[in-house]
Amino acid sequence: MSATLERALGLRSLLLLAPLVAALTTNALAQTHESTATHADPVAPVVLALAIILAAAKLGGHVAGLIGQPAVLGELVAGVALGSADLAGVGWFQAIERDQTVDILARLGVLILLFEVGLESTVRDMLRVGLPSLLVAILGVAAPFALGWGASALLLPDRSVYVHAFLGATLTATSVGITARVLQDLGRSQSPEARVILGAAVIDDVLGLVILAVVGGIIAAANRGDSLSYAEVGLVLGKAVAFLFGALALGVTLSPTVFGVASRLSGRGVLLATALVFCFALAYLASIIGLAPIVGAYAAGLILEDVHFRDFVNRGEQQLEDLVHPISAFLVPVFFVIMGMRVDLAAFGRMDVLGLATLLTVAAIIGKQACSVGVFGQKLDRLSIGIGMVPRGEVGLIFANIGLGLTVAGQRVIDEGIFSAVVIMVIVTTMATPPALKWSLARAARQPDA
Amino acid sequence: MSATLERALGLRSLLLLAPLVAALTTNALAQTHESTATHADPVAPVVLALAIILAAAKLGGHVAGLIGQPAVLGELVAGVALGSADLAGVGWFQAIERDQTVDILARLGVLILLFEVGLESTVRDMLRVGLPSLLVAILGVAAPFALGWGASALLLPDRSVYVHAFLGATLTATSVGITARVLQDLGRSQSPEARVILGAAVIDDVLGLVILAVVGGIIAAANRGDSLSYAEVGLVLGKAVAFLFGALALGVTLSPTVFGVASRLSGRGVLLATALVFCFALAYLASIIGLAPIVGAYAAGLILEDVHFRDFVNRGEQQLEDLVHPISAFLVPVFFVIMGMRVDLAAFGRMDVLGLATLLTVAAIIGKQACSVGVFGQKLDRLSIGIGMVPRGEVGLIFANIGLGLTVAGQRVIDEGIFSAVVIMVIVTTMATPPALKWSLARAARQPDA
Fold this sequence. Notes:
Chain A is mainly alpha-helical. Chain A is built from 19 helices and 2 strands.
């Protein structure tokens, strides 16, 4: 009976496909001739954009995996390909890049990513990593900042000091996600080097976000016509530090109570909803204090610990990480593909962009080798730690993206050319790390007393 | 050492909270005096709205659970409360209701919900339920449609025939989600009555969506100034049926191949991404053919079966339902809370609204009792089947929401008053079902040969 029905369905499909295909073709043709949207439901163009973005992201991630690279690289390149389709005469994808809702979904994606990355560490982990990680982190922030500033001053002498500071800041933060993923793929995530690298990368992120807040605040003040005053710098720095430590202290104090109360709420999905409310509320608090919303999302992730959810897991809910992961799998690729679409491929032909990209990449790689100076008194492979700190992933792109939206005296701080140079730096540092780290860890293993 | 650090953090929190609280208060006060947004990041108002919506949804769901009602009811009522805050002088929440991105997120939410509901059944399930479910479904659609039309013609004699048809259509579709959830809660989801109810509810949804497509198409034609021609009705009906069967046939034929190819892609999250691309693509196809995007999402859910994902699950990915659930837990409450916010509480004071709501509710309940006529030749409890078909949940609200956006000759088909009457009908049928079904199943169990 069932087989008969299936066969009947198979036969019917041939008959039914004809009008379907005809209707689809007619509608598609009709739409290309009409400039006004014929969709009654405004969700239609958004779901089309999401379908294209997710398909491109997964294909790109697969190709990246084939050549031994992290998936994020493939998503970026897929975005570059979609965004550059207009060079080949297909201008249609430009609509996706300009869609406001897709832009907000991408921004929600990066919030969820930083929240997820924050969930991987706890506030106690950060306090516990101690002196080596802190020294490694500070050196790994100061050296790239200075080198990036220098590279910008050298190649862009006409630009203001704000551009130099912003490019320096863009080089500071190590990508926790990429570093952790590479160490995991190599089965080395529990090695002493891995602990120092991951601890320093976490501190790096926080320092980078503080620097971003300070530089961004200075630029915003300059744009209002105020001069660069020490009081202003102090205020921005104070606000950033107060928010981070205040949010962490408040969160650590309050979150057990909040989740304790929430765990008494009945209904499915309470754990996920409470965690998202916590993340979104801290992101909003960060934004009203003048920080990037991602700072709040990251702080929310750091604050939340498994122990807060014991009551939920005991009653049969999944772990929070498992619940957040599908949301990040849905929204995070939107961010990276849209980032890739914003890369101006035509700018790659300009010698100044390639020159800046080369110098920024060299500054990014050499700068992080300063980290190895901070490793002392322990039998650790310094070269591996320096290489492990090299990848600049999402945070560098986020900085560059924020720079696209900042203006001083009517001029954008980061223009398409500079943005493309930053993206090239991110792509090269991200691509170079997996093979380089694999090589240096293997070398260290052969010389256990080096 | 760790304890010392924690104590230090505790002490520090007191010192650090002061500037944080001061800064937050100052910023919040400053913002209420500035009409222009001070957020550099456009995601900030969206995350604030999402935090409020999710918190309200979960509190509402909890309260609903306390009084033995499904969570969806609590989410609706929470939305009504937020939306009515302006009556109490707090007009601030109106910004959430008007936010375009939140509206799109709500629409994505209902897409994901229908996709999820579709995943619970397969195309084969639908073909297998056979004659009793089909008869029950057709009677359960025809009777409420006729009674709804009659109620509308009786109480709204001045309105056009389109309003009557639309209100009739709004009464047709049983809420699969609520029915299934109630049967599950009562531990009766494997009973013969449950199979007939669920099978009929699935067919109901499809019939309801076809009716919506036909009525919506007729109204759109009338709005363009065309008269109501039989050819037009035939075309809309043909397109709807062709899409549903064409998409189902095409999907059943192609999806094993699509997922077979996708399962060869490396990288995390490929299963979820492929399923979402499938859902979004069918939703978009439905919209370009003139159907509601949810029809495509539901068809996508029906088509996808566990067997397509065997390769993914074998390599360690979670089941698709587990991956989709967190996304629906995030986005679906946005839909119901926003629906609730659109309820005009002031309209409840109008006698015509209450009269229409009462008559629609009676039509909805009595109409579904016609289902029991379709149950014959089997030892089934007819009353329980009739009661099980009563709840009108998301689909009725979706219809009403679509009606808010349809106009004929410049006048909206569904105005705030009629919308509020539909929402009252949904609330009453949803609330009445759990206790009534519990009672009737217990009664039948006491009389096994009834």
